[in-house]
Design goal:
The chain contains 22 helices and 13 strands. It is α/β, with parallel strands linked by helices. It is globular, with a radius of gyration of 25 Å. It binds 6-O-phosphono-beta-D-fructofuranose.
Protein backbone atom coordinates (compact mmCIF):
# COMPACT_ATOMS: atom_id res chain seq x y z
CA UNK A 1 0.00 0.00 0.00
CA UNK A 2 1.27 3.45 -0.87
CA UNK A 3 1.47 6.15 1.79
CA UNK A 4 -1.35 8.68 1.72
CA UNK A 5 -0.61 11.99 0.05
CA UNK A 6 -2.35 14.40 2.38
CA UNK A 7 -1.19 18.01 2.32
CA UNK A 8 -1.10 18.81 6.05
CA UNK A 9 -1.76 22.48 5.46
CA UNK A 10 -5.03 21.72 3.77
CA UNK A 11 -6.43 19.74 6.67
CA UNK A 12 -9.03 21.31 8.97
CA UNK A 13 -6.85 20.56 11.93
CA UNK A 14 -4.00 22.66 10.49
CA UNK A 15 -6.34 25.66 10.40
CA UNK A 16 -7.32 24.99 14.00
CA UNK A 17 -3.67 24.73 14.98
CA UNK A 18 -2.94 28.04 13.26
CA UNK A 19 -5.75 29.75 15.18
CA UNK A 20 -4.64 28.10 18.40
CA UNK A 21 -1.07 29.25 17.80
CA UNK A 22 -2.23 32.85 17.39
CA UNK A 23 -4.17 32.61 20.66
CA UNK A 24 -1.40 31.05 22.73
CA UNK A 25 1.88 32.28 21.27
CA UNK A 26 2.18 35.12 23.78
CA UNK A 27 1.84 32.91 26.85
CA UNK A 28 5.04 32.47 28.83
CA UNK A 29 6.04 29.05 30.11
CA UNK A 30 6.24 30.53 33.59
CA UNK A 31 2.53 31.30 33.42
CA UNK A 32 1.73 27.83 32.15
CA UNK A 33 3.60 26.31 35.07
CA UNK A 34 2.15 28.61 37.71
CA UNK A 35 -1.39 28.03 36.51
CA UNK A 36 -1.24 24.24 36.57
CA UNK A 37 0.30 22.36 39.48
CA UNK A 38 0.01 19.09 37.55
CA UNK A 39 1.75 20.27 34.45
CA UNK A 40 5.02 18.35 34.91
CA UNK A 41 3.20 15.14 35.76
CA UNK A 42 0.78 15.51 32.87
CA UNK A 43 3.47 16.13 30.30
CA UNK A 44 5.89 13.41 31.36
CA UNK A 45 6.09 9.94 29.90
CA UNK A 46 7.80 7.14 31.70
CA UNK A 47 8.78 4.10 29.72
CA UNK A 48 11.21 1.35 30.73
CA UNK A 49 14.30 3.15 32.05
CA UNK A 50 13.41 6.36 30.19
CA UNK A 51 11.76 9.46 31.56
CA UNK A 52 10.64 11.95 28.94
CA UNK A 53 9.57 15.28 30.38
CA UNK A 54 8.13 17.58 27.73
CA UNK A 55 6.38 19.96 30.11
CA UNK A 56 8.85 22.78 29.39
CA UNK A 57 7.34 23.27 25.94
CA UNK A 58 5.04 26.02 24.78
CA UNK A 59 2.00 23.80 24.81
CA UNK A 60 -1.31 23.47 26.60
CA UNK A 61 -3.68 20.52 26.85
CA UNK A 62 -5.41 21.84 23.79
CA UNK A 63 -2.15 22.09 21.81
CA UNK A 64 -1.47 18.43 22.43
CA UNK A 65 -5.04 17.42 21.58
CA UNK A 66 -4.84 19.30 18.29
CA UNK A 67 -1.41 17.92 17.41
CA UNK A 68 -2.63 14.41 18.16
CA UNK A 69 -5.59 15.01 15.88
CA UNK A 70 -3.16 16.10 13.20
CA UNK A 71 -1.44 12.72 13.54
CA UNK A 72 -4.81 11.04 13.03
CA UNK A 73 -5.79 13.22 10.12
CA UNK A 74 -2.65 12.40 8.15
CA UNK A 75 -3.30 8.70 8.83
CA UNK A 76 -0.19 8.12 10.90
CA UNK A 77 -1.59 4.83 12.18
CA UNK A 78 -1.98 3.43 8.68
CA UNK A 79 1.51 4.65 7.75
CA UNK A 80 3.08 2.90 10.78
CA UNK A 81 1.33 -0.34 9.84
CA UNK A 82 2.66 -0.01 6.32
CA UNK A 83 6.19 0.76 7.54
CA UNK A 84 6.38 -2.36 9.71
CA UNK A 85 4.62 -4.54 7.15
CA UNK A 86 7.25 -3.93 4.49
CA UNK A 87 5.15 -1.67 2.24
CA UNK A 88 7.23 0.11 -0.39
CA UNK A 89 7.11 3.37 1.52
CA UNK A 90 10.38 4.46 -0.09
CA UNK A 91 8.33 4.99 -3.21
CA UNK A 92 10.84 6.88 -5.36
CA UNK A 93 13.30 4.00 -5.05
CA UNK A 94 10.59 1.31 -4.99
CA UNK A 95 11.77 -0.13 -1.68
CA UNK A 96 10.52 -1.19 1.72
CA UNK A 97 12.02 0.48 4.80
CA UNK A 98 12.72 -2.24 7.31
CA UNK A 99 15.57 -1.44 9.64
CA UNK A 100 13.05 -2.57 12.28
CA UNK A 101 13.41 -6.14 10.93
CA UNK A 102 17.12 -6.10 11.79
CA UNK A 103 16.27 -5.97 15.48
CA UNK A 104 13.10 -8.06 15.42
CA UNK A 105 12.89 -11.41 17.22
CA UNK A 106 13.97 -14.56 15.47
CA UNK A 107 10.44 -15.97 15.42
CA UNK A 108 8.87 -12.81 14.05
CA UNK A 109 7.76 -12.84 10.47
CA UNK A 110 8.71 -9.81 8.40
CA UNK A 111 7.67 -10.02 4.79
CA UNK A 112 9.42 -8.23 1.96
CA UNK A 113 7.54 -8.82 -1.28
CA UNK A 114 5.96 -11.93 0.25
CA UNK A 115 9.21 -13.46 1.56
CA UNK A 116 10.02 -13.68 5.27
CA UNK A 117 13.43 -12.03 5.66
CA UNK A 118 14.03 -13.06 9.26
CA UNK A 119 15.93 -16.30 8.50
CA UNK A 120 18.38 -14.30 6.36
CA UNK A 121 18.69 -11.57 9.00
CA UNK A 122 19.57 -14.15 11.63
CA UNK A 123 21.97 -15.97 9.31
CA UNK A 124 23.96 -12.74 8.94
CA UNK A 125 23.75 -12.10 12.69
CA UNK A 126 25.17 -15.58 13.29
CA UNK A 127 27.99 -14.82 10.88
CA UNK A 128 28.73 -11.54 12.68
CA UNK A 129 28.82 -13.43 15.96
CA UNK A 130 31.22 -16.14 14.75
CA UNK A 131 33.50 -13.70 12.96
CA UNK A 132 33.71 -11.18 15.80
CA UNK A 133 34.23 -13.89 18.43
CA UNK A 134 37.06 -15.34 16.37
CA UNK A 135 38.75 -11.95 15.91
CA UNK A 136 38.36 -10.90 19.55
CA UNK A 137 39.56 -14.23 20.93
CA UNK A 138 42.58 -14.20 18.64
CA UNK A 139 41.53 -17.40 16.89
CA UNK A 140 41.52 -15.51 13.59
CA UNK A 141 44.99 -14.24 12.89
CA UNK A 142 46.78 -11.99 10.47
CA UNK A 143 49.07 -13.21 7.68
CA UNK A 144 52.10 -13.63 9.95
CA UNK A 145 50.14 -15.53 12.59
CA UNK A 146 49.68 -12.66 15.03
CA UNK A 147 46.26 -11.85 16.55
CA UNK A 148 44.54 -8.63 15.47
CA UNK A 149 45.07 -5.50 17.51
CA UNK A 150 43.41 -2.89 15.28
CA UNK A 151 40.26 -2.61 13.17
CA UNK A 152 39.74 0.04 10.50
CA UNK A 153 36.21 0.80 9.32
CA UNK A 154 36.29 2.18 5.77
CA UNK A 155 32.98 3.82 4.86
CA UNK A 156 31.20 7.16 4.73
CA UNK A 157 27.77 8.58 5.65
CA UNK A 158 25.63 5.84 7.15
CA UNK A 159 28.48 3.38 6.66
CA UNK A 160 30.64 5.45 8.99
CA UNK A 161 28.61 7.71 11.26
CA UNK A 162 26.53 4.99 12.95
CA UNK A 163 29.46 2.68 13.76
CA UNK A 164 31.65 5.65 14.72
CA UNK A 165 29.03 7.22 16.98
CA UNK A 166 28.14 3.92 18.70
CA UNK A 167 31.72 2.74 19.27
CA UNK A 168 32.46 6.10 20.88
CA UNK A 169 29.23 5.96 22.92
CA UNK A 170 30.02 2.44 24.14
CA UNK A 171 33.72 2.97 24.73
CA UNK A 172 33.20 1.98 28.35
CA UNK A 173 32.25 -1.53 27.17
CA UNK A 174 35.15 -1.87 24.73
CA UNK A 175 37.60 -4.75 24.48
CA UNK A 176 41.30 -4.64 23.58
CA UNK A 177 40.82 -3.93 19.86
CA UNK A 178 41.59 -0.37 18.78
CA UNK A 179 39.12 0.88 16.20
CA UNK A 180 39.71 3.56 13.60
CA UNK A 181 37.44 5.16 11.03
CA UNK A 182 38.51 6.28 7.59
CA UNK A 183 35.78 8.15 5.76
CA UNK A 184 36.89 11.34 4.02
CA UNK A 185 38.28 11.18 0.49
CA UNK A 186 40.88 13.62 1.81
CA UNK A 187 44.02 11.50 1.53
CA UNK A 188 45.37 13.06 4.70
CA UNK A 189 42.66 11.20 6.61
CA UNK A 190 43.63 7.73 5.44
CA UNK A 191 47.39 8.36 5.46
CA UNK A 192 47.28 9.81 8.96
CA UNK A 193 45.57 6.65 10.20
CA UNK A 194 47.81 4.25 8.26
CA UNK A 195 50.85 5.98 9.72
CA UNK A 196 50.35 4.26 13.06
CA UNK A 197 49.13 0.86 11.91
CA UNK A 198 50.87 -2.45 11.66
CA UNK A 199 49.70 -4.37 8.56
CA UNK A 200 50.34 -7.69 10.30
CA UNK A 201 47.79 -7.04 13.01
CA UNK A 202 45.18 -4.81 11.35
CA UNK A 203 41.80 -5.89 10.05
CA UNK A 204 40.06 -3.68 7.47
CA UNK A 205 36.28 -3.62 7.16
CA UNK A 206 35.06 -2.02 3.94
CA UNK A 207 31.48 -0.87 4.44
CA UNK A 208 29.45 0.39 1.53
CA UNK A 209 25.84 -0.46 0.83
CA UNK A 210 26.34 0.21 -2.88
CA UNK A 211 30.08 -0.47 -3.09
CA UNK A 212 30.25 2.34 -5.63
CA UNK A 213 30.90 5.29 -3.30
CA UNK A 214 33.94 7.25 -4.48
CA UNK A 215 35.31 8.00 -1.03
CA UNK A 216 35.08 4.43 0.24
CA UNK A 217 36.48 2.82 -2.88
CA UNK A 218 39.37 5.30 -3.05
CA UNK A 219 40.24 4.73 0.60
CA UNK A 220 39.90 0.95 0.29
CA UNK A 221 42.11 0.95 -2.81
CA UNK A 222 44.77 3.11 -1.13
CA UNK A 223 44.72 0.82 1.90
CA UNK A 224 44.94 -2.28 -0.28
CA UNK A 225 48.01 -0.84 -2.07
CA UNK A 226 49.59 -0.01 1.28
CA UNK A 227 48.85 -3.52 2.55
CA UNK A 228 50.34 -5.11 -0.57
CA UNK A 229 53.65 -3.41 0.17
CA UNK A 230 53.82 -5.74 3.15
CA UNK A 231 51.62 -8.79 2.52
CA UNK A 232 50.71 -10.67 -0.65
CA UNK A 233 47.51 -10.78 -2.72
CA UNK A 234 46.63 -14.03 -0.93
CA UNK A 235 47.01 -12.41 2.47
CA UNK A 236 44.20 -9.97 1.62
CA UNK A 237 41.70 -12.73 2.43
CA UNK A 238 42.90 -12.64 6.04
CA UNK A 239 42.85 -8.87 6.48
CA UNK A 240 39.82 -7.53 4.61
CA UNK A 241 36.12 -7.97 5.27
CA UNK A 242 33.27 -6.25 3.42
CA UNK A 243 29.69 -5.26 4.11
CA UNK A 244 27.52 -4.49 1.10
CA UNK A 245 24.50 -5.35 -1.03
CA UNK A 246 26.79 -5.52 -4.06
CA UNK A 247 28.47 -8.94 -4.03
CA UNK A 248 29.78 -8.56 -7.59
CA UNK A 249 31.77 -5.43 -6.79
CA UNK A 250 33.12 -6.99 -3.60
CA UNK A 251 34.39 -9.96 -5.58
CA UNK A 252 36.03 -7.59 -8.10
CA UNK A 253 37.79 -5.88 -5.21
CA UNK A 254 39.18 -9.27 -4.16
CA UNK A 255 37.65 -9.84 -0.75
CA UNK A 256 37.29 -13.44 0.34
CA UNK A 257 33.67 -14.68 0.23
CA UNK A 258 33.97 -15.95 3.82
CA UNK A 259 34.47 -12.36 5.00
CA UNK A 260 31.55 -10.88 3.12
CA UNK A 261 28.50 -9.72 5.06
CA UNK A 262 25.42 -8.99 2.98
CA UNK A 263 22.86 -6.29 3.63
CA UNK A 264 19.66 -5.50 1.82
CA UNK A 265 18.19 -2.67 -0.21
CA UNK A 266 15.38 -2.33 2.35
CA UNK A 267 17.91 -0.96 4.84
CA UNK A 268 18.69 2.72 4.28
CA UNK A 269 22.33 3.73 4.79
CA UNK A 270 21.52 6.13 7.62
CA UNK A 271 19.52 3.42 9.42
CA UNK A 272 21.98 0.62 8.84
CA UNK A 273 24.07 0.35 11.98
CA UNK A 274 21.79 -2.50 13.08
CA UNK A 275 22.85 -4.60 10.10
CA UNK A 276 26.32 -5.94 9.32
CA UNK A 277 27.25 -2.26 8.89
CA UNK A 278 27.58 -2.52 12.67
CA UNK A 279 30.35 -5.14 12.31
CA UNK A 280 32.93 -2.70 13.68
CA UNK A 281 30.66 -2.07 16.68
CA UNK A 282 30.43 -5.82 17.33
CA UNK A 283 34.20 -6.10 16.99
CA UNK A 284 34.77 -3.24 19.41
CA UNK A 285 32.32 -4.19 22.15
CA UNK A 286 31.64 -7.86 21.45
CA UNK A 287 28.62 -9.52 19.90
CA UNK A 288 26.54 -9.65 23.09
CA UNK A 289 26.73 -5.90 23.53
CA UNK A 290 25.93 -5.40 19.85
CA UNK A 291 22.92 -7.64 20.26
CA UNK A 292 21.82 -5.73 23.37
CA UNK A 293 21.91 -2.55 21.29
CA UNK A 294 19.53 -4.22 18.85
CA UNK A 295 17.30 -5.43 21.68
CA UNK A 296 16.99 -1.89 23.00
CA UNK A 297 15.99 -0.65 19.57
CA UNK A 298 13.46 -3.46 19.29
CA UNK A 299 11.83 -2.38 22.55
CA UNK A 300 11.42 1.09 21.08
CA UNK A 301 9.96 -0.45 17.91
CA UNK A 302 7.31 -2.20 19.99
CA UNK A 303 6.64 0.95 22.02
CA UNK A 304 6.24 3.02 18.84
CA UNK A 305 4.01 0.48 17.12
CA UNK A 306 1.76 -0.30 20.05
CA UNK A 307 1.45 2.73 22.31
CA UNK A 308 -1.35 5.22 22.02
CA UNK A 309 -0.06 8.32 20.32
CA UNK A 310 -0.55 10.36 23.50
CA UNK A 311 1.87 8.04 25.31
CA UNK A 312 4.18 7.39 22.42
CA UNK A 313 7.55 9.13 22.90
CA UNK A 314 8.61 9.34 19.22
CA UNK A 315 5.16 10.57 18.23
CA UNK A 316 5.15 13.26 20.91
CA UNK A 317 8.74 14.29 20.02
CA UNK A 318 7.75 14.62 16.37
CA UNK A 319 4.55 16.55 17.06
CA UNK A 320 6.40 19.05 19.25
CA UNK A 321 9.00 19.51 16.56
CA UNK A 322 6.29 20.14 13.95
CA UNK A 323 4.68 22.65 16.32
CA UNK A 324 7.87 24.73 16.51
CA UNK A 325 8.96 24.22 12.91
CA UNK A 326 5.65 25.00 11.25
CA UNK A 327 3.92 27.36 13.64
CA UNK A 328 6.68 29.12 15.56
CA UNK A 329 8.99 29.17 12.53
CA UNK A 330 11.90 27.63 14.44
CA UNK A 331 14.48 26.53 11.88
CA UNK A 332 16.85 24.53 14.02
CA UNK A 333 16.82 22.10 16.92
CA UNK A 334 19.71 21.43 19.24
CA UNK A 335 20.44 18.02 20.73
CA UNK A 336 22.63 18.23 23.81
CA UNK A 337 23.68 15.01 25.49
CA UNK A 338 25.10 15.46 28.98
CA UNK A 339 27.48 12.58 28.41
CA UNK A 340 30.90 12.87 26.85
CA UNK A 341 30.49 9.36 25.45
CA UNK A 342 27.70 10.75 23.25
CA UNK A 343 29.98 13.31 21.64
CA UNK A 344 29.11 12.11 18.11
CA UNK A 345 25.39 11.72 18.76
CA UNK A 346 24.27 15.01 17.18
CA UNK A 347 26.54 14.51 14.16
CA UNK A 348 25.03 11.08 13.67
CA UNK A 349 21.49 12.43 13.92
CA UNK A 350 22.30 15.20 11.46
CA UNK A 351 22.48 12.60 8.72
CA UNK A 352 19.49 10.64 10.00
CA UNK A 353 17.25 13.68 10.28
CA UNK A 354 18.51 16.04 7.60
CA UNK A 355 19.11 13.49 4.85
CA UNK A 356 15.67 12.05 5.54
CA UNK A 357 13.50 15.09 5.91
CA UNK A 358 15.45 17.72 3.99
CA UNK A 359 12.93 17.58 1.14
CA UNK A 360 10.87 20.24 -0.60
CA UNK A 361 8.66 18.14 -2.86
CA UNK A 362 5.66 16.39 -1.34
CA UNK A 363 4.56 12.82 -1.92
CA UNK A 364 2.32 13.94 -4.78
CA UNK A 365 5.29 15.53 -6.54
CA UNK A 366 4.38 19.14 -5.73
CA UNK A 367 6.73 21.72 -4.29
CA UNK A 368 5.68 22.25 -0.67
CA UNK A 369 4.61 25.66 0.59
CA UNK A 370 5.38 24.94 4.23
CA UNK A 371 8.56 24.19 6.14
CA UNK A 372 9.91 20.63 6.36
CA UNK A 373 13.15 19.20 7.81
CA UNK A 374 14.72 20.97 10.74
CA UNK A 375 18.41 21.79 10.96
CA UNK A 376 20.03 19.67 13.67
CA UNK A 377 23.08 20.59 15.67
CA UNK A 378 24.61 20.12 19.07
CA UNK A 379 27.57 19.14 21.20
CA UNK A 380 27.73 17.57 24.63
CA UNK A 381 27.02 19.51 27.79
CA UNK A 382 28.65 21.02 29.73
CA UNK A 383 31.16 21.98 27.00
CA UNK A 384 28.40 23.46 24.84
CA UNK A 385 27.31 25.73 27.71
CA UNK A 386 30.67 27.48 27.45
CA UNK A 387 30.49 27.66 23.67
CA UNK A 388 27.11 28.44 22.12
CA UNK A 389 24.52 28.45 24.90
CA UNK A 390 24.70 32.25 25.04
CA UNK A 391 22.76 32.36 21.77
CA UNK A 392 20.13 29.88 22.96
CA UNK A 393 19.57 31.94 26.14
CA UNK A 394 19.74 35.48 24.85
CA UNK A 395 19.87 35.36 21.06
CA UNK A 396 16.98 36.24 18.75
CA UNK A 397 16.31 32.72 17.53
CA UNK A 398 14.00 30.13 19.01
CA UNK A 399 15.90 26.86 19.39
CA UNK A 400 13.96 23.95 20.86
CA UNK A 401 16.53 21.79 22.59
CA UNK A 402 16.65 18.17 23.71
CA UNK A 403 18.60 17.56 26.90
CA UNK A 404 19.70 13.94 27.23
CA UNK A 405 21.13 12.79 30.54
CA UNK A 406 21.69 9.72 32.70
CA UNK A 407 20.87 9.04 36.35
CA UNK A 408 24.09 7.09 36.84
CA UNK A 409 27.54 7.62 35.40
CA UNK A 410 29.57 4.70 34.16
CA UNK A 411 32.74 5.22 36.18
CA UNK A 412 30.66 6.02 39.23
CA UNK A 413 32.33 9.30 40.18
CA UNK A 414 29.47 10.83 42.15
CA UNK A 415 31.11 14.19 42.63
CA UNK A 416 31.51 14.75 38.89
CA UNK A 417 28.15 13.28 38.03
CA UNK A 418 26.28 15.48 40.49
CA UNK A 419 27.97 18.55 39.03
CA UNK A 420 27.20 17.43 35.49
CA UNK A 421 23.57 16.77 36.26
CA UNK A 422 23.18 19.98 38.24
CA UNK A 423 24.10 21.79 35.04
CA UNK A 424 21.72 19.65 32.99
CA UNK A 425 18.76 20.50 35.24
CA UNK A 426 19.82 24.12 35.71
CA UNK A 427 19.93 24.81 32.00
CA UNK A 428 16.39 23.66 31.29
CA UNK A 429 15.13 25.61 34.28
CA UNK A 430 17.00 28.74 33.23
CA UNK A 431 15.86 28.44 29.63
CA UNK A 432 12.27 28.08 30.76
CA UNK A 433 12.10 30.74 33.50
CA UNK A 434 14.64 33.24 32.28
CA UNK A 435 15.30 36.18 34.58
CA UNK A 436 13.03 39.23 34.77
CA UNK A 437 14.15 42.84 35.06
CA UNK A 438 12.87 42.92 38.68
CA UNK A 439 14.95 39.89 39.55
CA UNK A 440 18.02 41.42 37.94
CA UNK A 441 17.55 44.72 39.77
CA UNK A 442 17.13 42.94 43.09
CA UNK A 443 20.28 40.94 42.49
CA UNK A 444 22.32 44.00 41.56
CA UNK A 445 21.04 45.93 44.56
CA UNK A 446 22.26 43.13 46.76
CA UNK A 447 25.68 43.62 45.22
CA UNK A 448 25.57 47.28 46.26
CA UNK A 449 25.53 48.76 42.78
CA UNK A 450 24.31 52.34 42.44
CA UNK A 451 20.95 53.17 40.79
CA UNK A 452 22.64 54.44 37.65
CA UNK A 453 24.93 51.42 37.42
CA UNK A 454 21.90 49.17 37.78
CA UNK A 455 19.99 51.07 35.08
CA UNK A 456 22.90 50.71 32.71
CA UNK A 457 23.59 47.04 33.31
CA UNK A 458 20.13 45.56 33.91
CA UNK A 459 18.94 45.23 30.26
CA UNK A 460 21.90 43.01 29.40
CA UNK A 461 21.31 40.74 32.34
CA UNK A 462 17.67 40.03 31.59
CA UNK A 463 16.82 36.58 30.21
CA UNK A 464 13.51 36.38 28.36
CA UNK A 465 13.18 32.67 29.13
CA UNK A 466 10.27 30.80 27.53
CA UNK A 467 12.75 28.63 25.61
CA UNK A 468 11.39 25.15 24.99
CA UNK A 469 13.25 22.02 26.02
CA UNK A 470 12.65 18.29 26.25
CA UNK A 471 14.34 16.42 29.06
CA UNK A 472 15.25 12.81 28.34
CA UNK A 473 16.49 11.18 31.52
CA UNK A 474 17.73 7.62 31.21
CA UNK A 475 18.99 5.36 34.01
CA UNK A 476 22.36 4.52 32.53
CA UNK A 477 24.22 4.53 29.24
CA UNK A 478 24.18 0.86 28.27
CA UNK A 479 24.15 -0.83 24.86
CA UNK A 480 20.45 -1.45 25.37
CA UNK A 481 19.47 2.08 26.39
CA UNK A 482 21.57 3.52 23.57
CA UNK A 483 19.78 1.30 21.05
CA UNK A 484 16.43 2.41 22.45
CA UNK A 485 17.44 6.08 22.30
CA UNK A 486 18.62 5.96 18.69
CA UNK A 487 15.43 4.20 17.64
CA UNK A 488 13.30 6.90 19.32
CA UNK A 489 14.85 9.46 17.00
CA UNK A 490 14.49 7.14 13.99
CA UNK A 491 10.76 6.92 14.55
CA UNK A 492 10.51 10.65 15.20
CA UNK A 493 11.95 11.10 11.69
CA UNK A 494 9.30 8.78 10.28
CA UNK A 495 6.41 10.59 11.97
CA UNK A 496 7.60 13.98 10.77
CA UNK A 497 7.97 12.74 7.21
CA UNK A 498 4.41 11.40 7.28
CA UNK A 499 3.02 14.70 8.59
CA UNK A 500 5.01 16.78 6.10
CA UNK A 501 3.83 14.51 3.29
CA UNK A 502 7.37 13.91 2.04
CA UNK A 503 9.38 10.80 1.26
CA UNK A 504 11.88 10.39 4.09
CA UNK A 505 13.84 7.44 2.76
CA UNK A 506 15.43 8.60 -0.47
CA UNK A 507 18.32 11.08 -0.77
CA UNK A 508 18.34 12.40 -4.34
CA UNK A 509 19.70 15.68 -3.05
CA UNK A 510 23.20 14.27 -2.66
CA UNK A 511 23.46 13.16 -6.30
CA UNK A 512 24.06 16.42 -8.16
CA UNK A 513 27.24 17.30 -6.29
CA UNK A 514 28.57 13.76 -6.86
CA UNK A 515 27.82 14.03 -10.60
CA UNK A 516 29.55 17.38 -10.98
CA UNK A 517 32.55 16.21 -8.96
CA UNK A 518 32.97 13.45 -11.58
CA UNK A 519 33.20 16.02 -14.40
CA UNK A 520 35.43 18.35 -12.43
CA UNK A 521 37.84 15.56 -11.52
CA UNK A 522 38.41 15.06 -15.28
CA UNK A 523 38.93 18.83 -15.63
CA UNK A 524 41.55 18.68 -12.91
CA UNK A 525 43.33 15.64 -14.28
CA UNK A 526 43.16 16.52 -18.00
CA UNK A 527 44.80 19.49 -19.63
CA UNK A 528 41.51 20.95 -20.90
CA UNK A 529 38.81 22.37 -18.59
CA UNK A 530 35.22 21.87 -19.78
CA UNK A 531 32.53 24.53 -19.75
CA UNK A 532 31.67 26.08 -16.36
CA UNK A 533 30.34 29.33 -14.95
CA UNK A 534 33.02 32.02 -14.72
CA UNK A 535 33.54 31.59 -10.97
CA UNK A 536 34.07 27.83 -11.09
CA UNK A 537 36.25 28.21 -14.18
CA UNK A 538 38.54 30.79 -12.58
CA UNK A 539 38.80 28.74 -9.41
CA UNK A 540 39.79 25.65 -11.39
CA UNK A 541 42.37 27.60 -13.37
CA UNK A 542 43.83 29.02 -10.17
CA UNK A 543 43.93 25.55 -8.55
CA UNK A 544 45.67 24.00 -11.56
CA UNK A 545 48.31 26.71 -11.94
O1 LIG B 1 25.68 10.17 -0.44
C1 LIG B 1 24.79 9.79 0.55
C2 LIG B 1 24.83 8.32 0.82
O2 LIG B 1 24.19 7.62 -0.19
C3 LIG B 1 24.23 8.00 2.17
O3 LIG B 1 22.87 7.91 2.16
C4 LIG B 1 24.95 6.76 2.54
O4 LIG B 1 24.85 6.50 3.91
C5 LIG B 1 26.34 7.10 2.09
O5 LIG B 1 26.17 7.83 0.90
C6 LIG B 1 27.27 5.93 1.85
O6 LIG B 1 26.78 5.08 0.88
P1 LIG B 1 27.34 3.63 0.71
O7 LIG B 1 27.10 2.87 1.96
O8 LIG B 1 26.60 3.03 -0.46
O9 LIG B 1 28.81 3.71 0.41
Amino acid sequence: MALSKINPQQTDIWKKLTAHFEETKGTHLRTLFSSDANRAEKFTLQWNDFLFDYSKNRITDETMQLLLQLADEVNLKGAIDDYYAGGHINETEGRAVLHTALRAKKDDEVLVDGVNVMPEVYEVKEHIKEFTNAVISGELKGYTGKPFTDVVNIGIGGSDLGPAMVTEALKFYKNHLSVHFVSNVDGDHVHEILKNLDPETTLFVVVSKTFTTQETLSNATTIKKWFLKHGTQEDIAKHFAAVSTNSEKIAEFGIDAANVFPMWDWVGGRFSLWSAVGLTIALAVGYDNFNALLEGAHETDVHFKESDFSENIPVVMALLSVWYNNFYGAETEAIIPYAQYLSRFSAYLQQGIMESNGKSVDRAGNVVNYETGTIIWGEPGTNSQHAFFQLIHQGTKLIPTDFIGFKYSLHGDKDHHNKLMANYFAQTEALMNGKTKDEVVKELKEKDLTESEIDKLAPFKVFAGNKPTNTVLIDKLTPKSLGALIALYEHKIFVQGIIWNIFSYDQWGVELGKQLAGTILKDIENSEISDHDSSTLRLLQYFKK
